Amino acid sequence: MSDTSKKEFKRSFSGYVEICENMPTGMITVRGDLNSRKLKSAFSKVVGATLPKERKVTLAENSIAWMSPDELLIICGYDNVSDLMKKLQKELDDQHHMLVNVSDARAVFEVSGAAMVEIIAKLAPVNVKTLEIGEIRRTHFSQVAAAFWLTSEQRMKLICFSSVADYMFDLLKTSAVVNSKVGEF
Amino acid sequence: MLIFTCPYCGIEADETELTPGGEAHLKRFGPGSSDEEFEGYLFNRENPKGVHFERWRHVYGCGKWFHAARCTLTLEVFGTYSAQTFEPPEEIKERIRAKRPGWKWRNFS
Ligand SMILES: [Zn+2]
Asked: What are the Cα distances from residue B36, in Å, to B18, B29, B46, B47?
């Protein structure tokens, strides 16, 4: 394998928006009772963040995304995963929960540019006018499942299964081809 | 287009984000039931032109199953509600009474 340690991203494309696939990111799926005091204190102690409200993403060093009423996703450095998991496991020892390292099962993309929301509108059944910065939206982009959130008005992050990363990259590329702008937003 | 608000995550999800789960509020008849009950449980379904109750799953979203009340003729949605219940909430039944006076569906009206 080639040395990727110095690369900032896996691949990128410049159309009427910028698209890039990020280098592997650490991700941990957490299942459990999100209202339990123990889970909350474990998160503030280990992850250093409060739990996000419904559909929100906390944008800290380790961000936490609300995935469903009983599921969270921790997004952290690729190399921090096992350490975080060990510590969380210890804190949640006697409480029903599930932690899974899904880092290698996910791909992360970033789309940026003034017409970024148009790319979402082209590919997902989402009313982009209702999107707020820091709100995660689980949906599908064309044929595959994806979750995304706006990090600013002109930039969004998207995660999908790594098994469909090529499909997603091609999809985003095709929708961002120069001269294909609709100009609706 | 059919759009349901998922009661578990609050998202307005269109049909392509959901998986249909068939008729709602079925009572299971298993071992020990009569042949007729078992046949009814397996095969007999409502097929109304109008008010209907269904199960749907927010499969591309939060992944939760929920219940929905809608009109099969106009696609009007009367409401969505928790999957952890044996019958539609009174509030939804009331809404249907106002819009479809005299409606009846299995034991509900
Ligand atoms: Zn949902």
From this structure: 33, 10, 16, 19
Instruction: For residue B76, report the distance from its CA to the centre of ligand 1, in Å.
Output: 19
Q: What are phi and psi of A184, to 5 degrees?
A: -80, -30
- For chain B, helix, strand, coil in percent to 5 are 20, 30, 50
One digit per residue, pLDDT tens: chain A, 185 residues? 455 556 789 999 999 999 999 999 999 999 999 999 999 999 999 998 889 999 999 987 899 999 999 999 999 999 999 999 999 999 999 899 999 999 999 999 999 999 999 999 999 999 999 999 999 999 999 999 999 999 999 999 999 999 999 999 999 999 999 999 999 88
The Cα–Cα gap between B101 and B74 comes to: 16
Domain range for residue A164?
9-23+105-177
Distance from Cα B61 to the centre of ligand 1, integer Å: 5
Nearest to B97 by CA among B82, B81, B108, B86: B108
Helix, strand counts (H, E) of chain B: 2, 6
Contact A145 B60 (CB under 8 A): yes
Pick the CATH number of B3-99 from 3.40.1190.20, 3.40.50.12780, 1.10.287.70, 3.30.2270.10: 3.30.2270.10
Reported ipTM: 0.90
Chain B partners of A67 at a C-beta cutoff of 8 Å? 62
A66, β-bridge pairs: A72
Please indicate if any CB of chain A lies within 8 Å of the CB of B8. Answer: yes
Model pTM above 0.90: yes
The helix/strand/coil state of B25 is coil
